[in-house]
Specification:
Blueprint lengths: L3 E7 L7 H14 L3 E7 L15 H6 L4 E3 L7 H4 L13 H12 L3 E7 L5 E2 L2 E2 L2 H16 L3 E5 L10
Parallel strand pairs: 1-4, 1-7, 2-3, 2-4
Antiparallel strand pairs: 5-6
Helix pairs in contact: 4-5
Length: 162
């Protein structure tokens, strides 16, 4: 049995180009013989400067069938500015993200969970809460005996292109 693949992704730099982003992601996933993916927003707060990702803007672009907001997987530090720099609001919500990924995989659709951070790691250290969320999902999958992989979108091996 092939593992279910989930993608992580940071939208940094795409805020004014969301229609182009969706078109590109859909084209890549279609070329890989998958349906256009579902996007899961794991930010605790959606009031941001990036026009395409502020409030419900991205959800309106994609429609409710292809977008979920899981505030429960957001980084509480963003609201409190106290304690550790990464504090997942409700770590148990990783089970819901895993359920959604498995459900979508049955329909040949992959899941891409995202926040705004450009890099998930910096100099080998966790720099973004989506890495912590990925770890929680992997732990939940292991506990259930589910085979999954989590990679940064677009995945696959890097290639030199001109």
């Amino acid at each position: 049995m092939k593992p279910v693949i989930l993608f992580t992704w940071g939208y940094y730099g795409w805020g004014n180009h969301t229609p182009d982003l969706v078109k590109a992601v859909d084209a890549v996933e279609t070329s890989r013989d998958f349906k256009p993916p579902i996007f899961v927003d794991i930010r605790i707060r959606r009031s941001v400067r990036a026009a395409g990702f502020t409030g419900p803007a991205f959800e309106r672009l994609l429609g409710k069938d292809r977008h979920r907001w899981m505030k429960s997987l957001g980084n509480r530090f963003i609201e409190t500015r106290t304690g550790p720099h990464i504090q997942i609001a409700d770590p148990a919500a990783a089970e819901e993200l895993l359920d959604l990924a498995i459900e979508q995989a049955e329909h040949n659709q992959r899941l891409l969970f995202f926040c705004s951070c450009q890099w998930s790691r910096c100099h080998g250290k966790i720099a973004c809460h989506r890495t912590t969320v990925a770890g929680l999902v992997l732990k939940a999958a292991k506990k259930r005996g589910e085979k999954i992989e989590i990679v940064e979108w677009p995945g696959s091996n890097p290639k030199d292109m001109e």
